Give the backbone structure.
Amino acid sequence: MTEMFNPKANLVFCRKYKQNLPKLPAPPFPNAKGQEIQDTVSAKAWHEWLELQTMLINENHLSMIDKDAKKFINEQRDKFLDNADYEKPKGYTPQG
């Protein structure tokens, strides 16, 4: 018997938006944290984070080879995805 297409297989309950949304096609990192993000964060929320991450790196002149900069970005990522109070770039207005 052929397995039928299951549209829910491509959804994840997004921890940011608290609803089922399309998931990332693959983990964003090749480790347990990447798998956790794929399992709990929608593609929409992840793409919004990537835009914010770019703004934070540019505005704060961060070097991602700097251990403290990486720690800062990881903390802000988790805060953003968990709807906690995260650092916002000057003039940043979240989408809808």
About this structure: The beta strands are 11-14, 19-22.
